[in-house]
Amino acid sequence: MPLTDDEVTELAQKLFDARAGAAWTQGVPRLSGLAELDGYRVQAALLDLHLDAGDSLAGYKIGLTSPAAQTSYGASAPAWGFLLQSSVLDTTRNPRLPHVQARKIEAELAFVFGEDLPEGEVSSDDVVEATSTLRLAAEIVDTRWLGGAADLGSLVADDVSNAAVALGPQVAAAYAGSADIRAVVRAAGREEAGSSAAVLGRPANAVAWLASALAQHGLRLAAGQLVMSGSFGTPLAVDPEDDVLLDFGELGCLELSGAPVVE
């Protein structure tokens, strides 16, 4: 059965408290059987709590953009979540990673729009045309569920595991339509490689999908908003003290500094 409004509010409050907790030491007991639609209801209530607490909406993120990721959650399409302004890190000013638990790093592209995207059907060409700034980026993913999200609805409710985003060098907007960008995430001798082709064929396709998905909820991508494209490959698990390098080949690199080790 669908969640009642009171149940949605209660679950959103638990996820808010876990995300707002110091170093996220508070976790929410794992929940299974949450429907995708209820997950988006909880996510919307969670965003309202953050806005009421003084944060602001920076934009959106896209998850589950590869067939393998969708299969792992029994999904038939990607999923989306929100980005908080407080979670956006510009590495040209501060390269230090935020301190979160069990974090993983994904290589992505970040879109900033110079104009509103069209209402109705949106194409990948529309996305490229509306993009004013395209940056190399990393998403730091983490879960507020103890033991991880049990299903698609739980993943969606927890803002599709977003913890923070890190923005790197700017690149030409035309790369938004490329399926040939390679990226390698490296930390402490470990690495994960991926390609922009894993993002629904090319990142602009994923953003076009997002525009259509948001429209179903009465939302629209607007000028000035930030969108994270979705991961180029498998996320790389990192320890708090690890320095991380995201190498996008000829497009450049993004470097993140780990926290100092406390003796």
Corresponding CATH architecture: Alpha-Beta Complex
- Whole-number radius of gyration? 17 Å
The H/E string reads HHEHEEEHEHEEEHEEEE
CATH domain topology: Fumarylacetoacetate hydrolase, domain 2
Instruction: Please state roughly what percent of the residues sit in beta strands, choosing from under 5%, 5-15%, 15-25%, 25-35%, 35-45% or over 45%.
Output: 25-35%
Described by strand count, sense and barrel closure, the largest sheet is: 8 strands, mixed
Secondary structure: helix percent? 10-25%
Contiguous helical run count: 6
CATH level-1 class: Alpha Beta
Structural class by helix and strand composition = alpha+beta
Q: Which spans of ≥5 residues are poorly predicted at pLDDT below 50?
A: none
Shape: globular
Q: How many β strands by DSSP?
A: 12
CATH superfamily: Fumarylacetoacetase-like, C-terminal domain
How many distinct domains? 1
How far do the termini sit from each other? 50 Å
Instruction: Return the average pLDDT rounded to an integer.
Output: 91
